[in-house]
Amino acid sequence: MSRLTTIGFDADDTLWQNEQFFRMTEDRFVALLGAHGEAAEISGRLLEAEKRNLGFYGFGIKGFVLSMIETAIEVTKGQVSAAVIGEILAAGREMAAHPVETLPHVRETLAALAGDYRLVLITKGDLFDQERKLAQSGLGDFFDTVEIVSDKKPATYDRVFARHGDGAGRAMMVGNSLKSDILPALEAGSWAVHVPHELTWALEHAEEPVGHGRYRVIPDLGPLRGLIEQLAR
Fold first, then answer.
1. Under 8 Å between Cβ of 123 and 6
2. Cα 82 to the chain's mean position, in Å?
């Protein structure tokens, strides 16, 4: 652990709030289509559309808005009004304009680690939106580099930590998603620190790797520096 040189951080729901805005918009969407089905059914149809569309639109607000429009067409059997589509588009614009809300202990933790480790922001999603959120967060100066990727796989961490550090074996990934931040980083040979968020998108759920030697869990970023120091002993 004393040879750890690089720490990767996820962005959405690790450094700042994100999922709560998707949930709020989904509630608004379900209410718009309330005359065409039960809330749970409409939400389920939306989730299925998101799954289908990930390979076409990727992660982020734009793909979410397109999936909402597709779902509205489906559940209304092609009868959705232009006014409802306009409401969906407006909701997407509001999501894209929402101020960034950083999570507890983020700034002080990054400041404490920045001098001793290479910090790499590794996030997936829409390039424009992720760049906007990073700029608004005021956290950009803490990072040595930023990688906005289409998805997070073991090969992603192999590539990123080789390019910006000393390889996955001397790196740590910190994030809220077991599926995207933790499991593939462990498979690549990195340490992985799970920081659970109270809201996690259904498509990011995965089984926790309990017992893995390089896996740890902390409630927020506050204990991260202490955890690193403890592991290095």
1. no
2. 31
d(CA 179, CA 182): 6
Q: Look up residue 10 and give its amino acid.
A: D
Measured in residues, the chain has a length of: 233
Pick from 166, 168, 165, 144: nearest CA to 154: 168
Gyration radius of the chain's alpha carbons: 19
Give the DSSP H/E element, type plus range, for residue 149: strand 145-149
d(CA 156, CA 6): 15
Residue-level pLDDT at 233: 66
- Residue 159, pLDDT score: 97
Calpha distance 87→32 (Å, rounded): 8
- What does the pLDDT read at residue 138? 96
Query: Which residues are CB-neighbours of 223 under 8 A, at least 6 positions away?
Result: none
Per-residue model confidence (pLDDT) at position 181:
97
Residues of the chain with pLDDT under 50: 1-2
- Which of 112, 160, 118, 141 shows the shortest CA–CA distance to 5? 118
State residue 126's pLDDT score: 84
Q: For the whole model, what pTM was predicted?
A: 0.89
User: Are 215 and 194 in contact, with CB atoms under 8 Å apart?
Assistant: yes
Q: Nearest-CA neighbor of 149 among 169, 170, 175? A: 175
User: Between β-strands 145-149 and 191-194, what pairing exists: parallel, antiparallel or unpaired?
Assistant: unpaired
pLDDT at 115: 87
